[in-house]
Design a protein that fits this description.
Layout lengths: L1 H10 L5 H13 L12 H4 L26 E3 L1 H4 L7 H8 L4 E3 L6 E3 L9 E5 L2 E2 L20 E6 L3 H4 L6 E6 L7 E11 L3 E11 L3 E12 L3 E7 L2 E7 L4 E15 L3 E15 L12 E16 L5 E17 L2 E20 L3 E16 L7 E17 L2 E12 L2 E2 L3 E11 L14 E13 L3 H5 L11 E17 L2 E15 L2
Parallel strand pairs: 4-7
Antiparallel strand pairs: 1-6, 2-3, 4-5, 6-7, 8-9, 9-10, 10-13, 11-12, 13-14, 14-15, 15-16, 16-17, 17-18, 18-19, 19-20, 20-21, 20-22, 22-23, 23-24, 24-25
Length: about 500
C-alpha cells in the first residue's frame, strides 16, 4: 500500500509536475540514436554532396501483437465521406456491425460477439476514453472529424487494451501526415428530419513539424411522424422532443520530430452536444434534455534506441460532463481522469519483439447520485507483449496483463494467438507476410476482464464498493483468403468461428 501511495502521489501530484519534468528531461537527456543510414566511404565525400535519408520514428502499434484476431480497419480515405458524422454513422455504414442507433444525435451503442456496450473498449490514441461512471461510450457523441483512423477488433483483448475489452475494442487515432505543403477540405451535410451539418479540416507539414486542425458541427430537428390505428381509423402523430440542438467538435493535433530519433506528439479533442432525449410513443409530456461535454488532451514522446528498440511515454487528462434534466428532475456528473503510460519495445533477434509497459489511471468524480462528497479512485496495470515469427509464413504472439483495482487484483489476462499462411502464390519478397494473397489459418485464445464502473461501486442506493471485476474467456479460429489480381485491386474474405463466456456479468 505504501508503494502504491508513493506511485500515486508521483503521478498525480499538483498540476502533474512530475509528468512535465519527465518529458522535458527525456527530450534533453536521452542519448542520440542512429536513425539514419550509414554514411558513404570517406574517399567519396570530397567529390560528391550526399543527402542522408530522412529518419522517421514509427510507433509499434499494439495490434502487431494481436496475432490470430480478426480486425477491421478504416483509413482516412474511408472516413473522409463521414467527416460531418459520428463513429456510429461510420461503423453502421462500413463495418456490418450491429449498432443500436435511435436516430441522429440519440443514443448509439455497439454489441460485439453477444456482449453489451460495457464490454467494448474505446481507445483514442492508445488511451481508454470510456466514461468511468458508465463504463461505455455513446458512439453518437464521438464525431469522426477528430480522428484520421478507425479500427475495430472483435473478440477479447484485455491483455492489449485493458478493462472492458471483453467483446472487442474500437481504436481511434490521429496519425500525423508528413506530406509537405498546406492542404484543406470542407464538407456540407444535409438529410431527413432537419439534419444539417458540416466539417472543415486543414493540415500542413514541414520536415520536422506536422499540424492538423479539424472541426465539425451538426444539428437535427428529429420530428418523426408515425401512425396509430384507432377506432376512427388510422391517425398520424408526430413524435417530438428528440432534437439534436447542436453538436460540435474541435480537434487540433501536432507531431514534432525531435532530433534524429525522437518524436513529440500532442492532441486535443473537444466535443459538446445539447440534445433532447427521445421519449417512447406511449409517453406524453416528456421534456428530457441532456448536455454532454468532453475535453480530452494527450501528450506523448517516443524515441528509438541504438539497438533497434523504442520506448514511449504518454500522459493525458480528460473531463467528461453529463447534465441531465427532465420535468424539474436534475442529475449532473463531472469526472476528471488522469492517465499515464510508459512502455519499451525491444527486438529479440531478427524474428521476435517484446514490449513491457505499465499504466495508471486516477478518477475524480462529482456525481449527484454519489452523495455530497467527491469520489476518487486509482487503477494501475502492467503488461508484457511478445511477438515471434519463427518462419515467414508463421506468426505467433503471447500477451499478459495484470491490473490492480481498489477492490483487489483483477484476473490475470493472458492471450495467445497464431497465424499460418497455408498457401501463398507470390514470392516471399514481394509484399509483407501478413498482406500476401493466399489462405491464412488463424486462431487465438484469451482471458479478459471488466472493472466495475463508478456507478456500480458508489451509486446511492445500490452501489457496492467491494464489487469484484467481471472475468471471462474466449476462443476463435478462422480462415482468411486474399485475392490480388493486380496491384490496384484486392479482395479479402474471412470466416471466423468463436465461443465466449463472461462470469459475474
Amino acid at each position: 500500500m505504501l508503494v502504491f501511495n508513493i506511485f500515486q502521489n508521483a503521478l498525480f501530484g499538483p498540476r502533474g509536475r512530475l509528468l512535465g519534468y519527465t518529458l522535458a528531461g527525456l527530450l534533453l537527456a536521452s542519448p542520440a540514436a542512429h536513425g539514419q543510414a550509414a554514411p558513404p566511404r570517406p574517399d567519396t565525400l570530397a567529390a560528391h554532396r550526399h543527402r542522408l535519408p530522412e529518419a522517421r520514428v514509427r510507433g509499434a502499434r499494439p495490434e502487431q501483437f494481436a496475432v490470430g484476431s480478426r480486425r477491421l480497419e478504416l483509413d482516412s480515405a474511408a472516413l473522409a465521406q463521414y467527416r460531418g458524422g459520428t463513429a456510429a454513422d461510420v461503423l453502421g455504414a462500413r463495418s456490418g456491425l450491429y449498432i443500436k442507433n435511435y436516430g441522429p444525435g440519440q443514443l448509439a451503442t455497439i454489441s460485439l460477439r453477444g456482449t453489451s456496450a460495457q464490454h467494448t473498449a474505446v481507445l483514442w490514441n492508445g488511451l481508454n476514453i470510456a466514461l468511468p461512471t458508465l463504463g461505455q461510450n455513446d458512439l453518437a457523441l464521438l464525431p469522426i472529424s477528430g480522428n484520421t483512423q478507425l479500427a475495430v477488433q472483435p473478440g477479447p483483448a484485455a491483455a492489449l487494451y485493458g478493462s472492458g475489452a471483453v467483446g472487442g475494442a474500437i481504436i481511434l487515432r490521429t496519425e500525423p501526415d508528413w506530406r509537405p505543403g498546406l492542404r484543406g477540405s470542407g464538407q456540407a451535410d444535409g438529410g431527413s428530419f432537419g439534419l444539417r451539418g458540416g466539417s472543415l479540416e486543414a493540415r500542413t507539414a514541414t520536415p520536422t513539424l506536422a499540424v492538423r486542425v479539424a472541426a465539425s458541427y451538426r444539428q437535427a430537428l428529429n420530428d418523426y411522424p408515425y401512425y396509430v390505428q384507432e377506432p376512427a381509423g388510422r391517425v398520424r402523430y408526430t413524435l417530438r422532443n428528440a432534437a439534436l440542438r447542436h453538436q460540435w467538435s474541435f480537434s487540433p493535433d501536432l507531431a514534432w520530430r525531435v532530433g534524429r530519433a525522437g518524436e513529440l506528439t500532442a492532441a486535443a479533442w473537444l466535443t459538446d452536444a445539447d440534445r433532447e432525449i427521445q421519449p417512447g410513443v406511449s409517453i406524453a409530456g416528456s421534456n428530457a434534455r441532456e448536455i454532454d461535454q468532453s475535453r480530452r488532451f494527450v501528450l506523448g514522446y517516443r524515441r528509438a534506441t541504438t539497438g533497434g528498440g523504442q520506448w514511449a511515454v504518454r500522459g493525458a487528462w480528460f473531463e467528461d460532463i453529463i447534465n441531465y434534466s427532465d420535468q424539474g428532475a436534475i442529475s449532473n456528473s463531472r469526472v476528471r481522469t488522469t492517465q499515464s503510460q510508459a512502455e519499451y519495445t525491444a527486438p529479440l533477434g531478427a524474428r521476435a519483439s517484446l514490449r513491457l509497459g505499465t499504466e495508471a489511471q486516477h478518477f475524480a468524480a462529482v456525481v449527484d447520485g454519489y452523495g455530497t462528497d467527491p469520489i476518487t479512485e486509482n487503477r494501475t496495470a502492467a503488461f508484457a507483449l511478445l511477438r515471434y515469427d519463427p518462419r515467414p509464413a508463421l506468426r505467433l504472439s503471447a500477451n499478459l496483463r495484470q491490473a490492480a483495482l481498489p477492490a483487489g487484483l483483477a484476473p490475470l489476462t493472458p492471450t495467445v494467438g497464431a497465424e499460418w499462411d497455408i498457401y501463398r502464390p507470390l514470392a516471399a519478397d514481394t509484399v509483407a507476410p501478413a498482406s500476401r494473397p493466399g489462405f491464412t489459418l488463424k486462431a487465438s485464445a484469451a482471458r479478459t476482464y471488466r472493472a466495475p464502473t463508478l456507478n456500480e461501486r458508489y451509486w446511492q442506493p445500490g452501489g457496492n464498493p467491494n464489487l469484484l471485476a467481471e472475468s471471462g474467456h474466449g476462443y476463435e479460429v478462422g480462415l482468411r483468403q486474399r485475392l490480388a489480381p493486380n496491384s490496384r485491386f484486392q479482395l479479402e474474405n474471412e470466416l471466423t468461428a468463436f465461443t465466449q463466456l463472461v462470469d459475474n456479468w
